[in-house]
Structure formats: structure tokens, C-alpha cells
Prior knowledge:
This protein is an all-alpha fold. About 90% of the residues lie in helices and about 0% in strands. It is built from three helices and no strands. Helix 1 runs antiparallel to helix 3. The longest helix is centred in the N-terminal third of the chain and has 39 residues. It starts with a helix and ends with a helix. The relative contact order is 0.13.
Amino acid sequence: MRQLYLLKVCKYQMLEVSFLKTGLIILEMIVSVALIFSIMLQSGRDAGFSGAVSGMSDNLTGNKAKGMDEFYKKITSVTAILFILLSIALVAIH
């Protein structure tokens, strides 16, 4: 009787870990896509000729692109930290 009870408890715990692992994997995929997009939306450090031409127009219209770059840098930092933490959690569960 006790062995049957232990078997039921083990199955329940494995099912619980399976749901947690699946949820973490889905969350990690969402975070990784957000990380990719936040990196792709940032402008490069050296914009080259196009940066020189658009730099003149930024001085006239205000530099809104710089503010967006700062925002994307913060988003990139947060999503990178989340990605690392989720990866560590998945390794710990496995």
C-alpha cells in the first residue's frame, strides 16, 4: 500500500516539474525573441555615411533617435538578464 502511495506521489511531482519546465521553455522562447528584436532595433555605433547625413537632420528636428536607443539598451539589458536566469533555472530543473 505504501509503495502505491509513493508511486502516485512521484508521478504527481514529475507532472508538476514537467509543467514548470514547459512553462519556463515557453517563457525563454518569448524572452529570446524579445532580446533579438531589441538588439536589431538599436542603431549601430558607426552609422557611416547615412549617420553623417541623418545627423544633420537630427540637429534640426531634435534627437529622438538617441532617446530610443537608450530605451532599447535598457530593454536589451533586462531581457538578457531574464534569458540568463531562465537558462540557469532550466538547467537546475533538468
